[in-house]
Amino acid sequence: MIVDSALYRHGARVPDECEAHDYARLRAEVREEGDFVWLGLHEPDMDELSEVAAAFGLHPLAVEDAVNAHQRPKLERYADSLFLVLKTLWYVDADDAVETGEINMFIGPDFVVTVRHGRGADLRPARQHLEEHRRVLDHGLSAVVYAVCDSVVDAYREVALELEQDVDEVEESVFAPTRSDDSARIYTLKREIAEVRRAVLPLRDPMRRLAAGEVEGIAPEAGPFFRDVLDHLGQVDEVVDNLETMLSSAFDAQVSRISVQQNDDMRKISAGAALVVVPTLIAGIYGMNFSQMPELHWTFGYPFALSLMVGSSAVLWIFFKRSGWL
Amino acid sequence: MIVDSALYRHGARVPDECEAHDYARLRAEVREEGDFVWLGLHEPDMDELSEVAAAFGLHPLAVEDAVNAHQRPKLERYADSLFLVLKTLWYVDADDAVETGEINMFIGPDFVVTVRHGRGADLRPARQHLEEHRRVLDHGLSAVVYAVCDSVVDAYREVALELEQDVDEVEESVFAPTRSDDSARIYTLKREIAEVRRAVLPLRDPMRRLAAGEVEGIAPEAGPFFRDVLDHLGQVDEVVDNLETMLSSAFDAQVSRISVQQNDDMRKISAGAALVVVPTLIAGIYGMNFSQMPELHWTFGYPFALSLMVGSSAVLWIFFKRSGWL
Amino acid sequence: MIVDSALYRHGARVPDECEAHDYARLRAEVREEGDFVWLGLHEPDMDELSEVAAAFGLHPLAVEDAVNAHQRPKLERYADSLFLVLKTLWYVDADDAVETGEINMFIGPDFVVTVRHGRGADLRPARQHLEEHRRVLDHGLSAVVYAVCDSVVDAYREVALELEQDVDEVEESVFAPTRSDDSARIYTLKREIAEVRRAVLPLRDPMRRLAAGEVEGIAPEAGPFFRDVLDHLGQVDEVVDNLETMLSSAFDAQVSRISVQQNDDMRKISAGAALVVVPTLIAGIYGMNFSQMPELHWTFGYPFALSLMVGSSAVLWIFFKRSGWL
Amino acid sequence: MIVDSALYRHGARVPDECEAHDYARLRAEVREEGDFVWLGLHEPDMDELSEVAAAFGLHPLAVEDAVNAHQRPKLERYADSLFLVLKTLWYVDADDAVETGEINMFIGPDFVVTVRHGRGADLRPARQHLEEHRRVLDHGLSAVVYAVCDSVVDAYREVALELEQDVDEVEESVFAPTRSDDSARIYTLKREIAEVRRAVLPLRDPMRRLAAGEVEGIAPEAGPFFRDVLDHLGQVDEVVDNLETMLSSAFDAQVSRISVQQNDDMRKISAGAALVVVPTLIAGIYGMNFSQMPELHWTFGYPFALSLMVGSSAVLWIFFKRSGWL
Amino acid sequence: MIVDSALYRHGARVPDECEAHDYARLRAEVREEGDFVWLGLHEPDMDELSEVAAAFGLHPLAVEDAVNAHQRPKLERYADSLFLVLKTLWYVDADDAVETGEINMFIGPDFVVTVRHGRGADLRPARQHLEEHRRVLDHGLSAVVYAVCDSVVDAYREVALELEQDVDEVEESVFAPTRSDDSARIYTLKREIAEVRRAVLPLRDPMRRLAAGEVEGIAPEAGPFFRDVLDHLGQVDEVVDNLETMLSSAFDAQVSRISVQQNDDMRKISAGAALVVVPTLIAGIYGMNFSQMPELHWTFGYPFALSLMVGSSAVLWIFFKRSGWL
């Protein structure tokens, strides 16, 4: 599905609605140095993308990747065009989960084709923002590549913030005096953090190359901007790294705390039951049927036995309290 | 055992059935630039392979490796031919296990000899696919090497998918409310993941060299195709890496959950038993044989004792419930 | 907020009170080679900093970073000025916590602008110390950069010392014979150590470059001084690394010790209760109502039963003591 | 002790029995290009080796190393001779243990001196094999170095196989339904694996240099052979690495399984005891001495009480079974 | 405090007792090429060292380091002199602890100043040994630097041996059938091992540079000697690395073993108590007061009841034995 397509000249959008099957005509509009076409697609099938590939001369291996999605982030050169794969991330509040999509970019000398997979990571705001800042857009293709990368990585940062909050909640729950089993939640968070890492880590190398101005086809002057993106990527990586470490510690702490609490419970129940064991023995003794048991005939035999019971329990109670068992 | 042998010229198979002992004649068919022979063997013994080695000039150390199998994946140059070792993997549904085989390739200037060990990883589909795509096969030997690598690594991806599913199942079982001991299964999965890694990790360096076009004897133009294989390898590695981490977390989570459940059981049983301890004491008291025990002669002495028992248990019950012990 | 601003010439402060909005005039004072302006700001908003940026030609990306704070430590070149980000750390005794702030430095050919965030890490002492040591200050801008880095890293060392003390306390508590649950405290310390690392680790690369004299705009003669800072950074890193390892070991040790203690308690309680079980059985036996029970009619039947009880308990007691159960 | 000594010329052994103190004469036999002496010693003392050192011009630091043994594997150049240290490993079936020895080689332009420590790793088979393959021995010194390295590393492979089998046994024992404490055995295996690693890891670098033909004094043509040794080393490393990981997992699994089994036992015992608690209470109730207890006078009072006991136990039994507690 | 000072010429000590404040005169004695002064200080204060610094032209940053101690091992160049920091280690038998000191060396073109901190690591034996080996000392300054490094690293080896013994003891204690809590001892050993590592690890790089002859001011001919030191350093590192791993495994094993033992105890106590539960019930039954209880009037009712008790306990005993619970 074509989401949007336009020709840009001197940093301004040249109105030109492109229909499907019409890609060659669109590209032919490029006449002056600096003109370029930005074609945005959403989950195209093989047929749709093949036509685009024919018009723009895209490499079949890259096209296959762009249709299948589920690539690792990477930046590769095929003949005279670049192929950039980005994973997109967004946080779904409803189920506290991180979802992933993908953006594939074909960057040629006079065109950018963006292929988006998944619901998240809409590129429309990035495009509008660019179109409103003619000075930026005037830098041509590189500005578009930067804008897309920047918006994708900004979304990572938001996801990282959400995860930070989730970890804070887990932490609070683990160290709260109330009992709770957070192991499933910790596990899920670890999975999501792993998801984020899979998006972030492989992207660092492409961004480094872009920041260093080493990538042919991207203006070296755009370096500082990609360095900025790389920096944000580094922040996300650091945050997520730290969250993972803290989660592991939190998991260990909770295992230890639960075990301590449970053992405390058992000890208290056992000690409580032990308090009753001696009185029961005393009752048993005075329940014996010996013909010669002087206490049975004492006037205060019964109260004596009762106080013996209470006394023995009291002694045990004090002993248990002192031992920290009750 | 010879599986298949053929001469390829201009991307087409030249019909020529090679018998055993006839390798020299087969090779002599190579006349034009670009002609090459592809000889496929399955678990040959030393004698069989020695004849092949004599005809194609294979290095004795490589031949020994190819007969023994159990090599690590590697790409090595011996004089003017290359020796490539690949581990093959396939998933056996019947026992949820990953099995391994091996493919050894001798790549000379005008021949490819593939030696396959193990049941899996049939090369016939790859050969057929090549023969049907003359345009690809026209690239000569490099196309064959790529086709074999590609089909082997594609099989890794399938295995990784199966393992991913197995891990998902384990995960579900661990966090299910029912009790199950998944430690043996987690252990087995870890073993299988280690198996996959042993196939994948050492192959990365050869693929990188092939992708970079650094390997003499393989066309540098084939680089992007090997880069694609390398990319798939990277995906498998990433998946498998992640599975391992998740399995470790799942194992820890299950140890913790089982321990929590078992302690809960013990606490409930103990608390339940403790409920009966006080009534037993009361029964013991009124079973004592003191001559002076007023309650024994009360009209409602018996119901009084019974309600004392019920009452004390009820008090304990409420207390235990409040403490979260029952 | 402007904290301080001055022009320095030949290592001496030239009195010149700069008002807000007056930055251009301040900079225009720089006339001779070696003159420079040092402008110190505290948590400026975008407007304040924009004016400064206009006067000193700061790069918009760097300015944005300086306003937002929450950067990772880094040293970057934007056109003809440097941008250095440092995290500041201080230890708050009241709540045993490490707090973080940030210092951003813009270093141009004839100016230093320091932007400080957070309460800690006051730069006034560093400035005063410099102004009192004219010989040092005479080295110009590089001396200022060194002085700031040195004072920031010295603060890291103090924080590391405080953390070392905290870890010593935890250690003592873990191995003390009294019982205590230190898991929450260990967790908090790990968090704080992670905080320190996030300040220290990314700073090593900039310091290494400064120490090697590779950074254009900073005098290579200042190398040994930055090497000293780098060395201190290395010490902090080492201390903190070690603390982390020891904390993990301490955590494991405490989990193990608590579990041992709790199990000991349980065993003692159970063994204690078991001592009473046999006498209770004996009492039960002599409480049976058989018409033919010779012991019941013995003269010393009752003392016999009592001594049987005491004897059996004593035997058990000795057995339990020997088994190490009591 | 001199084990064997000989002069080799054109790949053949020249009969010449060397006595102690006679080394200079032996060396003087070397007349033609390609001739070389191979002197084999077993645990010589300082005096013996000093004489050898004098005759062959060995470096004092290397000689000291060769007498003391307990070196790490290494390959070093001293003036015009090489010094190679190899650790030897062998598996002692009797006590399932890996034992270690050491081989030190001095490699000069026309001599090889091998100094062996420990009982294992006899070099005689390697020497005989070489002498029987004149074509190999004709390559001179390099062939000897290769033969020794090859036989040492082959022994590593055998040890690795034995360890693999031991780990398989442990694994089976851990996951067997019978109970066993394998922690001591796992610990011992880990120690032995560490032993193997200490032999294997530091040897990789010398082998890599030999394989690359970078070592002056060793024929670059021998490269593929050393590459083969390096490959075997890599296999041993991989096997041992994997064994270590699996042992750690097996240890964790066994800790978890034993804990689960023990808790199961406790639960069953507790639940079993709990079954008897309620009948005991009932018996206690009907043992009370109230004058007004109607049940006591019922004709079927006794059977009624008994069936009450049986019934209550049965209800508990069913409940416990359903809860999975019995 | 000046420990010793001397001028060395042609490998011999020139008698010359240096008083404090007299350093300049001492240095002036250096007249011929190859002469050098070796001044040994022990824990000098700032004033003492300042005078030395003035006489020998030492860099203020290095002097500050040498007074403060608590540096990380390092080798640095300040103008025309070298500054080498070594950590010294020694094992105090009395409290099984590793203590640390520090040696700082200033190495100029014609002097060595050694500044020692801490009680251990006396340099006198090294100096005497050198003075007795004129041939070695004739190599000048480099021989002194080597001698100091060698004696320091030899002390590391002794410490490593002591730690190895301590770990062996812990290991034995962990796997002994007697019960012991070794967690505190394991923790302490880990701390000491960390101490050793902090001395060893950062020293490897300086030694490597010295061994490679890359350090200006140290004779490249001394390379093999420093390579020897580096080798010893590598051995210590390996030993200590291994000890750490084994300690972690030993800790895990002991946690598991203690837990197993404690659970065994609990099970035995519980099972023992359970043996008495059924006889107690039987006694309770025959203690009931029903008017119609035929057994009570049997002649052998009492023996019957007793044998019922014994029988039921015996059955339970056999069952528990078979289940492995007793």
UniProtKB/TrEMBL annotation, chains A, B, C, D, E:
Gene3D superfamilies: CorA soluble domain-like (3.30.460.20), Magnesium transport protein CorA, transmembrane region (1.20.58.340). It is found in: Cell membrane; Membrane. It is a multi-pass membrane protein. One of its GO terms (molecular function) is magnesium ion binding. Keywords: Cell membrane, Ion transport, Magnesium, Membrane, Transmembrane, Transmembrane helix, Transport. It catalyses: Mg(2+)(in) = Mg(2+)(out). It comes from the Bacteria. GO terms for cellular component: plasma membrane. The chain crosses the membrane at residues 269-288, 300-320. Belongs to the CorA metal ion transporter (MIT) (TC 1.A.35) family. Mediates influx of magnesium ions. Alternates between open and closed states. Activated by low cytoplasmic Mg(2+) levels. Inactive when cytoplasmic Mg(2+) levels are high. NCBIfam families: corA. This is Magnesium transport protein CorA.
